[in-house]
Amino acid sequence: MNLRVKKILLWAAAVVFAVYAVIVIIRIPHAIEQKKTAEVVAKIHASKLTLDDVVGKNFPPDPGADGTAARLSTSASPGRAPPAT
Question: Among residues 43, 47, 71, 67, which one has the least CA distance to residue 58?
């Protein structure tokens, strides 16, 4: 083969390899995310629902039950007009 043809083939192979390497590097975060997603889906599928979960007995306490949320919303905040009385 001619030396010029060998150089062209070598450069073409180097470009193909470089493009492949860039594609692989770009896909690494996506592959990691797919693995994490598969783990979370497996965890969700392994969980067992009970009637208490469905009815809502396992919910955290209502944050507004003690009136804290209502007191905070009626207090004057910077940039807001005081509540009408």
Answer: 47
